[in-house]
Amino acid sequence: MKALSIVLSVIAAILIALIAVFFIGGVLGTEASVTVMEAAEDPVSLAAAAQAIEDGTAPLVLETLSEEELDGCRLANVTVTFTNNGLFAAEWLTYTLQGGAGDVAVYAQSADSLDIPARSSAQLNLKLLMRGNADGAGRALEVEYYVLGMRRTATISIE
């Protein structure tokens, strides 16, 4: 009876360890960086942003601006690095940008969705047009992904 109790205790400990590895290993690490510059410093990117908004090809338009208002805008380059330290792939990673104060539009993005293999990382790059006096307060990226079919969500502040 004592031997059976020891065996069952070992099996229970192994199962608890496996469950912990699954849950903890399914969490993505994130690191975000934001670089902001005056739009006048990069007229080519400003023209590309204005064209994407006008054509309707911009991934996200939060508000429209007149030509005169575009001159005082700033460009933000947001890079988010996702790190998967777990033993399982993070699949179908999709995201939604919650615009911050003064955000006008996302005029370019590097991907619509990502798959991040186990023990690796991936980057997402967003290019934003924002008003000149804005600081992007409240801007966040809401992320949804799946690990072994289990849905995970995260909110990343990218102010």
Largest sheet: 5 strands, antiparallel
Ends apart, CA distance between termini: 60 Å
Order of helices and strands: HEHEHEEEEEEE
Q: What is the molecular shape?
A: elongated
| Global Rg | 22 Å
CATH topology: Immunoglobulin-like
CATH top level? Mainly Beta
Helix percent reads 25-40%
CATH architectural arrangement: Sandwich
**Multimeric status of the protein:** single chain
Number of strands: 9
Hey, roughly how much beta strand do the residues contain?
A: 35-45%
Taking all residues together, what is the mean pLDDT? 90
What is the number of helical segments per DSSP (H or I, 4+ residues)? 3
Low-confidence stretches: none
Quick structural overview:
With 159 residues, the chain is an alpha+beta fold.
Blueprint (SSEs and pairs):
Layout: H1 2-25, E1 29-38, H2 43-55, E2 60-61, H3 67-70, E3 74-84, E4 90-98, E5 103-109, E6 113-116, E7 120-130, E8 140-147, E9 150-157
Antiparallel strand pairs: 1-3, 2-5, 3-7, 4-6, 4-8, 5-7, 8-9
List keywords for this structure.
five-stranded antiparallel sheet; alpha+beta; 159 residues; four-stranded antiparallel sheet; single chain; Immunoglobulin-like; 9 strands
